[in-house]
User: Fold this.
Amino acid sequence: MLEDDKKQILSDHPSLDGVQMAVLNKRMEAICRKMSNTLLRTGRSGVLNSARDFSCCLVTADNALLSVNESLPIHVLRGADMMAAAMQQFHTELKKGDAFIHNSPYHGGSHPADHTTLVPVIDDDGIHRFTMVAKAHQADCGNSIPTTYHGSARDVYQEGALIFPAVRIQENYQDIDDIVRMCKMRIRVPEQWWGDYLAALGAARIGERELMQLGKEVGWDTLEQFSLQWFDYSEQLMISAVKKMPHGEKTIHTRHDPFPGAEEGIDIKVRVLVDTDKAKIEVDLRDNPDCLPCGLNLSQACAETSALLGIFNSIPGDVPTNQGSFRRIVLHLRENCVVGIPKHPTSCSVATTNVADRVGNAVQRAIAELGDGYGMAAAAAIIPPSIGVISGSSEMTGGPYVNQIFLGWGGGAASPSNDAWLTIGHIGNAGLSYLDSIELDEMRFPMIVKGRNFVIDSGGYGRTRGGEGVFCEFGPTDGPMEVGYVSDGNETPAEGVRGGGSGSCANQFRKDPDGGLHQLDPCAQAIIPEGHTIVSYSCGGGGYGSPIDRDMYEVAKDLKEKWISNETAEKIYGVIVNQNGDVDVSATSLKRSELKNETP
Amino acid sequence: MRFAVDTGGTFTDLVVEDDLGDVRLYKSATTPENPVKGVLDTLTLAAEDYNKSRKEFLGGGDLLIHGTTRAINAIVTENTAKTAFFTTMGHPDILVFREGGRIEPFDFSVTFPKPYVPRHLTYEVSERIRYDGKVIENLDESKLIEQIKELKEEKVEAVGVCLLWSIVNPIHENRIGELLLEHLPGIPFTLSHLINPSLREYRRASSTVIDASLKPLMEDYLGGLSTHLHEAGFLGRVLVVTTQGGAMDAEDMAGSPIHSINSGPAMAPVAGRHYSNTDSGIDTAIIADTGGTTFDVSLVRGGRIPWTRETWIGQQYRGHMTGFPAVDVKSIGAGGGSIAWVDEGGLLHVGPQSAGAVPGPVSYGKGGKEPTVTDAAVVLGWIDPDYFLGGAMTLDKVAAEDAIQNYVGDKLGLDLHESAFAILTVATENMVHAIEDITVNQGIDPRGAVLIGGGGAAGLNMVAIGARLGCKQVIIPDTAATLSAAGALMSDLRAEFSATLYCHTDDFSFNSVNEILSDLESRCIKFLDGPGADSLEHTIEYTAEARYPHQIWEIEVPLHQGKIETQADVEKLRKDFHRTHKEVFAISDETSEVEIVGWRANVSCKLRENTNLKVMETISGNKVEDNRKAFFGSVGLVDSNVYRFEDMKDNVRVVGPSIIESSFTTIVVDPGSEAFRNTRGSLICEQSS
Assistant:
């Protein structure tokens, strides 16, 4: 049903008051939470059960995002709506008991490693009411190499993943075994995939069950009415949020590092217009390069989501993220653009992270540059080897293993009021993922983690500090290990804003048993022999505002806690401390005015 | 005679059970600067009531069970000992990273939490042990001794030691313990493999440093308590309630004080288990304890109190994980003091902000401006403004009306009563949400459970919550106002022992498993011969922590016995796992094998015969049955019966709308519900059929 038709039908239905709205919203949230809980607890691969790389949401029958559980932001702002629409486009008759698998980046999917299970909720009269969406990143998706981020893939054929554009995988609540067999023949460690499929399906089915109960309890018309009003309510909150922002336009230039297939690097231009009179925000991504012969191109879902991310990071946290608040945002994309709408067979293997991060960060930087107190600095670029996909074969794992590990990342962006959240990872993750336990990884895989710590002086300097980067060293203990990673930020750091400094750059080495370091490429499938290790440095995040405006006592604390060195405290922050670590106030004000004069 | 004293944030509750089994309740103000005084104050109050001198009164007591918020308060206010952290070389930031995770993805106004031990007091020890226990780098003792000297210079007051894989091979941790004793005598320390032998270094490290940081102050506090009680004439045994819903001797608690965190709320489900059994016969219960600012929910499932491995001090991901299994208690900011407000989009919210004790609700007349749940209850006629807390306080109804009209009614276009009712409705929904959160996690269907209400503010909407959840019954026990202390009185002496050993149902290592199990058994027996020597009876329960291959979150599966001898036993374990997994997550994978990661034994000793705790009856005399106008959403403003709880006759049903008042609380029976007092003394509420 179209929104207007629905309004017509429901014109007789009494509108819900603020109390009924609050109650129904909580019920909807609870349903998404139940879905997420199931996925987290029952997922088999580390990427689900320890990194929480999944999302659950609820979409209306006319394919508008209604309710989302706290999920990785890059997963859910846009995409669920497009995938649900693709499901309806390809399957004109939806029946109770249907389930669909979807990962096509050409039909609303984020990237092929994110398998989405879609379950249409059909009421007892056979009417399609809502669609439950559970998206889960797979440990493997059948790529031509053992990684779910194939950075150098020339096109989807070289990438190699099985692509499912909304393919029916259950009918009458029974698996369609043809599809399952195909997956088991193509996806590495098939029983792990099978376990994860069950987890995502279980989540969607639990959502379906709960929503059916709610529909029977309060009436489906009430739920339709709720959706309409919830969108209006969210739009209202968005309007008041935008009206409080600084009015203006800003274009930000940024750059993704050179990668295979993008040897010149990718220059990205993002124009942001905040119109407080109309209470609208526009983001224009059209003036950017065409799609490239590599895996870095964004899917449409990721291009749109990354722009939205920068906006939602810059407005108060209580504006709901749904179709209603999205009405105040206008996105300009173009076809066949690296940050736009890709055409088959363009590869979007790495669409959820690298270039998407650059776009999202540019949006929040643009808003920061429009006025102090708004927007954010840039968060770290990824994916360093410490978050890479490891694979090999060993006795310990009873044969081949492949999985993404989440050993360590940092690099949060400074906000106007707060130092960065340290373990943010990247803007699209927002720190929601768990980090691996060293003991758990060493027990599950033939590996040893020699070290993991934050790196001193690696966060962007500023009035508020960018998050530090992470050092990590690990290697195999039983045969060689392949580590796949795609580490942007080796050249272009996460930028600071309003006088804040950039974070440190990423880097990676192979280390010999005798300690010799060998530089590794930023995008590679590195083979690490037993006894050797891989050394990974993740990016630091950008700072906000001038470091000489940082509270001097906070700087002294940073120094004592070894986040910054003595030299940085003095030369960058202009803070002088005595032997006990206490601030020397007069020496500090002298030093700070000196620094102020140096930088006009 | 037995005493249970629960020191809470605002009140110190005392429950006295005399030798005839009669129970009396007392409340006095908590004295935060010297909590022992608050304990003695309530005992003085009780002695007066019994017409005895305090010395004589205490002399008749053989057991005192104490719940305390001392440890948690010290952590929250950052008043614990200056603590250093020893960790494996290369891993200095275990307490900084935690396990990642964050809530509210778009809110960047929250500061990243500080590590429990600052980085400048963290020391990396040169050593390394592998996952299988093999030492791959020896402990560098001379370097360690230098580091211990630095601790002295830093004037460190406690030390936590957590090395990677010490749970498999504790040789290095033990050696560090010896060197600390030798080079830093008098400074307490905690070794991770002893305090919490479980997998995952952050959780274990966190347990370790929290425990160490509490040692100096809890030794002082518990030592002081025992001494003062002794001086005041109490010659019996002093037990302290644990986070796991049991009790420990005070001196043992001083040696592992982390077990006293959350000591109070852990007792509510113990009481809940008792009342669900005596008053309903249903073995699954939801226990909701409502105070002024927080609403604590806990559970009983199949007669057992479910635990969680993830206990946070403070908010999830923003606080510190204790790393300890604990009675699963979910707390939210909701209570009588929760503030009602309308946002810019026109949506009504209640809480999480609270008016607290100061200024308190508007009707208290102490400067509160924004309307609260209590104010709404006054406006609705549910709370009698002239008879609040048994008449101890008079409330300003007009001020409450103005506040609700201004802050809520005008903004929502609702009249006064509708607005007040809306506040209660949203508060109820928030509480329902909290209950659903924990029941979802533990796989419990509220429709098969009874709801047990405790705490001073429980009565306002417990019947409504029960109806909303579809619970079979709502029980408000006679001890509701001091539910946790009542639970303490019912608690058993308990200890828990655990060990890590990985195995697989496909290739079961019978010998190693049975070795571990018999070691756990002998530790239980040692406990029975020691602290448990005087107990009437005891039980030992064994559980396995298991999961499907590749999963990483274990669930607990009870073992039928302390041995696994045959392939049939293994098969039984596998089947039990499938069933439990299905119960909790709605799915199971029957063809799959199962991995077991940890093994536990819980020993509990019954200290006294089961008695039917019954609160002594007093006759109110002054206020008799009458009625007043009260507002309910479904029927509007109607005449509602008002009863005194003490004057109600056993098993005689009253029909909603009714209001039942006691000196401790007000219970609202909504239209469509009815209630009666059972012979044991609890109020039982049900939906009218």
User: Anything to note?
Assistant: Residues 3-235 of chain A form one domain. The mean pLDDT of chain A is 94. The first strand of chain A starts at residue 54 and ends at 60.
